[in-house]
Write a structure and sequence with these properties.
Elements lengths: L12 H9 L7 E4 L14 E5 L4 E5 L24 H22 L6
Parallel strand pairs: 1-2
Antiparallel strand pairs: 2-3
Length: 112
């Protein structure tokens, strides 16, 4: 459910203060635990280290992200993959095909 229009978007004031203290071309990362903070137009072009529960995931904010929350770009769960014997065999077959394709491309062509 979205936030009430009467209240407006949640913007962490500490993040805004850190942004104002930084220079426009600064490449340093701003670490934050505030995943619920909404991205504003002032944040475009800056790098944020958004905490996912274990580490800070670096997020470079672009214009298309305005209006979204910082936590949307820092996944909290790691997808290992669906397992099983059949999936493992399929992955090995794909890897073998790719290896053959690389060998064929690297071999010099006889002719001309």
């Amino acid at each position: 459910m979205s936030r009430s229009l009467k209240k407006g978007p949640f913007i962490d004031l500490r993040l805004i203060n850190k942004l104002q203290n930084m220079k426009a071309g600064d490449k340093s990362t701003i670490k934050t635990w505030s995943r619920a903070a909404v991205i504003t137009p002032e944040m475009v072009g800056f790098r944020f280290g958004v905490h996912n529960g274990k580490v800070h995931v670096e997020v470079l904010v672009v214009e298309d992200m305005v209006g979204h929350k910082l936590g949307e770009f820092s996944p909290t769960r790691k997808f290992a993959r669906h397992g099983g014997k059949m999936a493992k065999e399929q992955a090995q077959a794909v890897a073998a095909k790719e290896a053959q394709g690389v060998k064929a491309a690297a071999a010099p062509k006889a002719g001309k």
